[in-house]
Amino acid sequence: MTSLTAVFQMARQRLIAPAIGNWARFYAAKPVAAAGKKKKLGKLGPIMEKKVIPVETDANKLVNYVCGSNYLKTGEDVKIKPDAEYPDWLWTLNTERIIPLDELEPDSKQYWRRLRKLALRRNNQLSKLKKF
Fold it and tell me: Where are the transmembrane segments (predicted)?
């Protein structure tokens, strides 16, 4: 029995005693900030730093290419073609304003999609007003 109790005492000294001596550290250590840089804390944690996006200033490139169309690391932006090479329907697209529901034809697909969208929006607003 004495050898068994000696083994338990050694195990206690190696395992339990260091944990008792360091009893205040039952949580994760605080992160150490980088040297010289302190991030500001907002309501939800550290504020993300804004990334500076390069803006194209070359007039020749702005006139001849669709800047920002190339999202790959290699390659170049799409070159602008003459107007005759684009389809005719492209020039008839509505870019001025959203056509009201009253001016749309009731038999068109666009009318029914708009009507459904407005109904969904109305139902969502009404569901917010419910107390439970």
Answer: none
